[in-house]
Hints:
The protein is mainly α. The protein has helices spanning 3-33, 39-49, 62-66, 73-85, 107-128, and strands at 60-61, 89-93, 101-105.
Amino acid sequence: MTAQQAEQALVARWRDILALHARTQCELDRALHGHGLCASDFEVLDVLAGCRTPKGTPSYRVQEISERVHLSQSALSRLIARLEKDGLVERGMCSEDRRGVKVCLTATGRALHEEVLPVQRAVLARMLAGD
């Protein structure tokens, strides 16, 4: 394989990954729409649901969430504000650093996450089965 062919194969693989991501995002958005969520909303709820702390309410700083989801800081802040308005998450001051903001699921957010989790995982299984 020539260097040019190898480069073309690399670019083709990259574009296949992007196309799979775009198709999967669209499928997730369609599947979650009936529950009032989009794929990004669910990702944040899923990250928060997976938070484990030794004591107290499981929560993450916004910065910790941004390290786990692929959103800009400003897009994530808007999304969290929308989830808070919908009663799915709560924001509070970080006790370790008063400049920081912690986010946690509400009981409503946790219940919605549990309800929608199988829907999201089924879409992932279907879309990524051939990969």
